[in-house]
Amino acid sequence: MKKFFKRFFLILFIVLFIFSLFFYKRIILSYRIADKYISLKNHAWTIQEFNTQKSSSSMNYKDVIYKNTNGIPLKLDIYGPINQVYKSSPVLVYVHGGSWAYGDKNIPDALSPVLDTFREQGYTIISTSYELMKEKENFTKQISDVKDTIRWINKNQYSYNLNTSEIGIIGVSSGAHLSLMASYSGDDEFIDDGDLSNYSSKVKYLIDFAGPTDLSLLNTQDLNYDLTKIFASISNKEEVIKKYNPINYVSKSNPNTLIIHSDSDNMVPYESSKELYDKCVQEHSKAKLITLNSSAHDLSNISKDDIMDFSEGLLKFIIFNSPL
């Protein structure tokens, strides 16, 4: 009996030790990120600050051409891990917003604390570009561009020491719409570059930041000249809405999804994110919805409580989808 108890407690000790090691990295990571964000409690963001772009001085590789179709070279930036924690680095892909017609791959300064902390913990951040719409709708090309970014990562995993089993994607606004479409559609859908077509476009998880999930809910009445021309180029709106609505691609096999949206958004209705979340629940697809209460679509006038809510939710989501 004594031998039994000795063995039992030895096994219990080993299990607890392994358990503590498993969670130790996550606890340390959470602490470091929280420490970076704690100053935000005494800080009020403005739209100018949110749109401030991250300096390129910390990039490892700038303007890497990942493909060249339609005579337009498409580029990405690579922010490598600051510390070598893993044999191969997990990846976070950033897809910018801008109503499908504007914006670039420079990372907003507001995202720097979380992204820099993950780089310190061995992650690689890849910020990608896609062909912007000019005069006419071109969703197929843009979705293919995002999927080809993932395919390029798979093709070049050994050149940049990337772990292609640990790819996450974070999209903002129209970039979130493209990320959802790219992540929810199959490997054999939305193919543009033949050299990349044999590689996987799958991701492990995605973060949808106020992305349109039901195009029929968008208000297209008071658009500027460029966007009016683009939307006017659509001859069959019902067909386009059906083909490019992420909500139509929801299934149990979708990657884990975090949805962040303000119920005060006057550009992309909060209803679209609620519909996506409800559809994910219905289809038994893992999803979480974080509702902000104080900010507009561009996060102007965001409250301190909302900053902490979405920061905490974002960090928890990435940490518990990480290989730590």
UniProtKB/TrEMBL annotation:
TM regions (residue ranges): 7-24
InterPro entries referenced in this protein's UniProt entry, alphabetically: AB_hydrolase_fold, BD-FAE-like_dom, GDXG_lipolytic_enzyme
Entry keyword annotation includes Acetylation: no
UniProt protein name: Alpha/beta hydrolase
UniProt source species: Clostridium beijerinckii
Keyword NAD set for record: no
Coiled-coil region(s): none
GO MF entry, a single one: hydrolase activity
Key words of the record: Hydrolase, Membrane, Transmembrane, Transmembrane helix
Residues annotated as domain BD-FAE-like: 76-279
Record's signal peptide: none
Pfam family name, one: BD-FAE
